[in-house]
Every structure is written in structure tokens, then in C-alpha cells.
Design goal:
alpha+beta, Helicase, Ruva Protein, domain 3, Tetrahydropterin Synthase, Chain A, 3-stranded antiparallel β-sheet
């Protein structure tokens, strides 16, 4: 058997981006043949990707892209398993490339997006699988949102964990940035009360009515209490009803009126929102990985 040197392992690591032990084992299995070892790792990466697909990917990044004319843009969320990998430049750049692709090609359907080609010439799906092979974690494209407007678009990224894109008419660029930052901070559900469904309102009204009934007050007083709570609830969940974060003395609605502006819509992604995260014992996980490397 050919001698497997440290320089050979290093070279294969640089070629594939995989771990030292995986590269050493591949070289041993191929008797030191570098090309054969690379091919073996590519073959094995498919199994690795399939195995990783069953693991929870609740960390990740949100990325945004807005066209030069400010009239089309997109948000994309890419998930992985750990915050450590979420900080890797490869996954951050992958998310950036996806956001641009979604905006330019209007690709919001996942199958079409997966089949589309990135500037590198590789398809999105091939690039995703290559990242799984390189980083050793399940990586998934969770969701994307695209805006096209006759007005203007503004975006705000809070690190890589919260992303907002807002479509507005009137005002200026500074207003757009302020609105996007406000949405990230205050997390409204929709723009206005008209967009709150009747079912949601009825559900909240039933809860507030039951709570108010416990006060023992007359029915007409209870009705007024419930109406007040509904009004407060709507102010909390709608963008227009919220106090503006930079000036809580005025609502966003009043701010827009002063600027002769209007918000047409917005999208907000929060990484991992709604995904049940698995509790991990990091020390035990490291021990297990060390045991497998022997």
C-alpha cells in the first residue's frame, strides 16, 4: 500500500473541502490515488447528503437583494444545523446568490429555483449538495419572497438572522430604511387592519370576551372592554397602528401621512421561525465525533 502523507491529505482537503479523517480514509481506500480518492468522496457525498437531510436545520441566514432600479427584489432564508456553519462565508454567499437569482428570474417556486443555474454554471441543487458535502450539515432553502413594484423597495438585515423587505410609494430612501428597521424591531403581522382576517378577529374577540366576563361587570361594559382590547390588539399587530420606533409619540400611519407616503406591502423572515429546535448536548456530540474518527 502506498504511503499516505500529510501533504496528500492536505491537498485532498483543499480540493474537496472535506474533513481530514474523511480524506485520509479515501486515500487509504484508493491506495493513494488522488483522482480516485476525489471521485470516491464525490460518490460518498451523495450518501452523506441523504443522511444529513434527516437532521433538523433550524439555524441559517437570511439574505436580501434589490435591483439597481429599486423596483424588484427578494429575500431568501437558507437553513443549516448550527450557528457555527451559519457564519461560514460559503453559506452566506450561497444565500446572496439565491436572493439575486430569485429577484432577477422571478423564481419563487422551489423546484424551479433548484433547477436554475447560478453564475458559476452549477445548478442551485448541485451547489446545495456540494455545500452539504463540504460543511457536513443539512442545508436547505426554506423559503423565498419576491417583490416587484412601481414604487420603491428598501431592505434591512439584522445581522443574518432577520431580513425585511418593504414596498413603499412616496417619501425617500431614508424613509424606506426606517420602515424596514421598524418592521424588524416591532414585527407587525400585516400593514393595516383591513388585512387581518375575520376568523382571527373573531377568535381574539372570543378570548377577550371570556376574560372580561370574569370581571362580573354588566354586558354593556364588557362589550366596551372587549372593543378596547380589540383596538389595542390591532394596533400591536398592524404596521400602521404601531408607534414608530424612532419616535414613539407618533404611529407609523402618522409618519407616512407626514411624508405623503404609503406602504404597499412587506416581507419579513426570521431564521428558524416556527422550526422546532432539537436540544443538543454539545460535549457529548464532540465526544461521539471523536470516537467515530478513531
Amino acid at each position: 500500500m502506498a504511503e499516505i502523507t500529510a501533504s496528500m491529505v492536505k491537498e485532498l482537503r483543499e480540493m474537496t473541502g472535506l474533513g481530514m479523517m474523511e480524506c485520509k480514509k479515501a486515500l487509504a481506500e484508493t491506495n493513494g490515488d488522488m483522482k480516485a480518492a476525489e471521485d470516491l468522496l464525490r460518490i460518498k457525498s451523495g450518501a452523506k447528503a441523504s443522511k444529513a437531510a434527516g437532521r433538523i436545520a433550524a439555524e441559517g441566514v437570511v439574505s436580501a437583494y434589490i435591483s439597481a432600479d429599486g423596483q424588484s427584489g427578494a429575500l431568501v432564508e437558507v437553513n443549516c444545523e448550527t450557528d457555527f456553519v451559519a457564519k461560514n462565508d460559503d453559506i452566506i454567499n450561497f444565500a446572496k446568490g439565491l436572493a439575486e437569482l430569485v429577484a432577477k428570474k422571478d423564481l419563487t417556486e422551489m423546484t424551479a429555483l433548484s433547477d436554475a443555474s447560478l453564475p458559476s454554471g452549477e445548478t442551485v441543487e448541485a451547489t446545495r449538495k456540494a455545500l452539504i458535502m463540504k460543511l457536513g450539515e443539512n442545508i436547505s432553502i426554506r423559503r423565498c419572497g419576491r417583490h416587484a413594484t412601481q414604487g420603491q423597495l428598501a431592505s434591512y438585515l439584522h445581522g443574518t438572522k432577520i431580513g425585511v423587505m418593504v414596498d413603499y410609494t412616496g417619501g425617500d430612501e431614508a424613509l424606506g430604511k426606517d420602515l424596514a428597521m421598524h418592521i424588524a424591531a416591532s414585527k407587525p403581522v400585516c400593514v393595516s387592519t383591513e388585512q387581518v382576517s375575520a376568523d382571527v378577529l373573531e377568535h381574539e374577540r372570543q378570548i377577550f370576551t371570556a376574560q372580561a366576563a370574569e370581571s362580573g361587570k354588566p354586558a354593556n361594559i364588557i362589550e366596551k372592554m372587549v372593543d378596547g382590547r380589540i383596538a389595542k390588539y390591532l394596533a400591536e399587530i398592524t404596521l400602521l397602528g404601531q408607534p414608530f420606533v424612532k419616535d414613539p409619540e407618533q404611529t407609523v400611519d402618522k409618519l407616512l401621512a407626514k411624508k405623503s407616503a404609503k406602504v404597499n406591502g412587506f416581507t419579513m423572515f426570521i431564521v428558524g421561525e416556527g422550526i422546532e429546535k432539537k436540544a443538543e448536548n454539545f460535549a457529548e456530540e464532540v465526544k461521539a465525533q471523536m470516537g467515530q474518527a478513531k
